[in-house]
């Protein structure tokens, strides 16, 4: 992966974490146990420190950056959706930042809170724990239900499982010229989307694991 030291400061990656080969890590970056960093993510610790705590995920095309002497932090089980931007902010335990959302300087996303897709969380905003915010600028929508918080955690667990799957089997290959007969599907965890669960299809927290020998 593109991994760079600056002024002698080298990124740190726990051996149980997975960082995609196209992600870029620069300088003062700390990636904890069981974390997932997706394709083309950019974690730039060339000004302030970047921290991913245990079990957090930062998905495809996300950017984490910050001002000097300010940390940009995703706490345990934090979940950062595709294309989100975090700048000098803190995302607390089990919180979710949706796809293409932006969280600005000194904002705090509270524990188990959700920032909706495409929302803009302005500098200094304090998102209360277990609430949903949405819009530009982000505004409080409502408190989250227990089943919604459980759904979020199930989604984060799928990324923790993806970390293990990638470490075990993800390899770069040449594409096939045609699909083989009886082509298998990827053996992914059994978790439904939120819209599917709202239609009455039960959400499950089951995570696929291979049977032990």
Short descriptors:
alpha/beta; UDP N-Acetylglucosamine Acyltransferase, domain 1; 8-stranded mixed sheet; 2 helices; 20 strands; globular
Would you mind describing this structure in some detail?
The chain has 213 residues and is α/β, with parallel strands linked by helices. The protein has a domain at 3-143: Hexapeptide repeat proteins (UDP N-Acetylglucosamine Acyltransferase, domain 1). The protein is 14% helix and 30% strand. The protein has helices spanning 146-169, 194-198; strands spanning 3-4, 12-13, 18-19, 24-31, 36-37, 42-52, 57-58, 63-65, 72-74, 79-80, 85-87, 90-91, 96-97, 102-103, 108-109, 114-115, 120-121, 126-127, 131-134, 139-143. Strands 1, 2, 4, 6, 8, 9, 11, 12, 14, 15, 17 and 18 form a twelve-stranded parallel β-sheet that branches. A hairpin with a 4-residue loop joins strand 19 (131-134) and strand 20. The longest helix is centred in the last third of the chain and has 24 residues, at 146-169. It is globular, with a radius of gyration of 18 Å.
List the helices and strands and how they pair.
Blueprint: E1 3-4, E2 12-13, E3 18-19, E4 24-31, E5 36-37, E6 42-52, E7 57-58, E8 63-65, E9 72-74, E10 79-80, E11 85-87, E12 90-91, E13 96-97, E14 102-103, E15 108-109, E16 114-115, E17 120-121, E18 126-127, E19 131-134, E20 139-143, H1 146-169, H2 194-198
Parallel strand pairs: 1-4, 2-4, 3-5, 4-6, 5-7, 6-8, 6-9, 7-10, 8-11, 9-12, 10-13, 11-14, 12-15, 13-16, 14-17, 15-18, 16-19
Antiparallel strand pairs: 19-20
């Amino acid at each position: 992966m593109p991994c760079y030291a600056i002024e002698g400061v080298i990124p740190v990656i726990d051996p149980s974490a997975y960082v995609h080969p196209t992600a870029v890590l620069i300088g003062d970056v700390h990636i904890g146990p069981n974390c997932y960093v997706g394709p083309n993510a950019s974690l730039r610790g060339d000004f302030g420190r970047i921290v991913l705590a245990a079990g957090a995920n930062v998905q495809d095309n996300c950017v984490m950056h910050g001002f000097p002497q300010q940390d940009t932090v995703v706490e345990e089980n934090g979940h950062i959706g595709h294309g989100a931007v975090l700048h000098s902010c803190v995302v607390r335990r089990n919180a979710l930042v949706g796809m293409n959302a932006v969280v600005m300087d000194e904002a705090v996303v509270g524990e188990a809170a959700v920032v909706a897709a495409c929302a803009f969380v302005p500098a200094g905003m304090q998102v209360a724990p277990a609430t949903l915010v949405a819009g530009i600028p982000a505004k409080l929508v409502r408190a989250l239900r227990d089943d919604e918080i459980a759904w979020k955690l199930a989604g984060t667990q799928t990324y923790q499982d993806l970390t293990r799957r990638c470490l075990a089997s993800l390899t770069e290959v040449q594409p096939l010229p045609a699909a083989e007969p009886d082509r298998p599907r990827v053996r992914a965890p059994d978790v439904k989307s939120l819209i599917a669960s709202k239609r009455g299809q039960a959400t499950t927290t089951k995570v696929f694991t291979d049977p032990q020998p």
